[in-house]
Amino acid sequence: MTDYPYAGRFPVHQRLPEHGRPREEILAELREMAAEEDARWENGKVSGTIYCGDHAHYEFMTEAYGLFAHANVLQRDMCPSATKFEGEILAMALDLMHAGHITGTTPAGLVTTGGTGSILHALLAYRDHAARTRGITRPNFIKPETGHPAFDKACHLFGIELRVAPIDPATTLVDVRAVADLMDENTIAIMGSAGNYGYGTIDPIGELSELALSRGVGLHVDACLGGFILPFGEELGYDIPPFDFRLPGVTSISADTHKYGYGFKGTSTLLFRDRRLRNELYFFSTGWSGGKYLSPGIEGSRSGGLLAATWAAMVQLGRDGYRARVKKIFETSARMQQAVRSHPQLRILGEPTFLFSFTSDEFDIYHVYDFMAGRGWRFNGQQYPNAIHMAVTLPQTRPGVTEEFAADLAEAVAYAQKQHAAGARPHSGAIYGGVPGGLTDEADEFIRQIMADMLDAQQSVPRPPEGR
Ligand SMILES: *Cc1c(COP(=O)(O)O)cnc(C)c1O
């Protein structure tokens, strides 16, 4: 093991210290690490990841968190406040998704641990509902190619066959006819994104809604990313097609409070048109010697702190708070996109809003990535086609960031042209880019091994001293 983080600077704990360390000493260490790691994004050069970046907001949420961090919301008699926080988070999220348009069923929701948590719970609910009401034992689910890997993970975990529908490369939107062709009598649900993680574009949810209704299956809208930003964009007059419960075929929506909801990492909302689908997730154990047990979803004990902090963030910001931030983000994204469009060598994929992805038909876009990385920019790398994306968040709206982006990008394009002419291969392309024509089985196995090594390094435990 080589480079254990901070090994040379702070004590490495291979076992519990025999004598506890002073609080002040520990906090000093933590402050040092946090300050250095925050500096990485505070310049506004990091795509996505840090959605808010306002330390006053973080301090406010930390206080709310601290008041309830020790409470276990599974023991509701001890913390009735959790019912208020969770219920109101869900009510506010449902309202944002126009659940007021729902008739004939009772809308409901679940606060989960994140986007993946919401997606896992959604697919579990669809699977069990289809088994119970339609007798489906070999379920399948259809996602557009651009649908988040959390859907692949859910299908993997829950024994659901995943079918992937292609997108139209010109628009990056799913081909709805292909979705229809993939459906059969064992299809439990289909999905669309608003917007998708790669391109930030919004699938034709209206058409998917018609399709889902006509075939009697569920439609999940993944608004993990867009759920707390697109509705305000629509209010501000941007051209955002409806993607929520206004469309009658939409049966569930995931919307992440821990992204553009500006909560702490660790919460998301999963919203249902019909409470009966949500209640498929309820778990009861009635005969256990330890007593009767019940839980609303996959988790057992949960901290009241995250619910309190998320609730506090939403209520403190309010509609006008979100709108003001969304306005800045949309305007910043438009200015950055303008900088991209000013270079004929670059091409933006689809018609995005707050998150945009671009490629080049003249050179490998990873040359641009390389140059920009040297200037401290951190984009997300994409493949098929090679592209890089910027999810604009509040740190990018700080003064000077767009100007710096435009200036660095102009130099990056000149650099890419020179590298391309010299026949050079980009450094980062090997890590992030796709291989033309797809991967051979051997290459795929090789990449999986590299990825496993990365996870090993991330989860590595410091080695105990020799001889122990
Ligand atoms: C982030 C994201 C997810 C997954 O969310 P996590 O919070 O990372 O688990 C799912 N879908 C979309 C579109 C996302 O952007």
Automatic annotation (TrEMBL):
Its main location: endoplasmic reticulum. The modification N6-(pyridoxal phosphate)lysine is found at K259. It is found in: Endoplasmic reticulum membrane. The keyword Lipid metabolism applies. The keyword Transmembrane helix applies. It is a single-pass membrane protein. One of its GO terms (biological process) is carboxylic acid metabolic process. Belongs to the group II decarboxylase family. Sphingosine-1-phosphate lyase subfamily. This is Pyridoxal-dependent decarboxylase. It comes from Thermomonospora curvata (strain ATCC 19995 / DSM 43183 / JCM 3096 / KCTC 9072 / NBRC 15933 / NCIMB 10081 / Henssen B9).
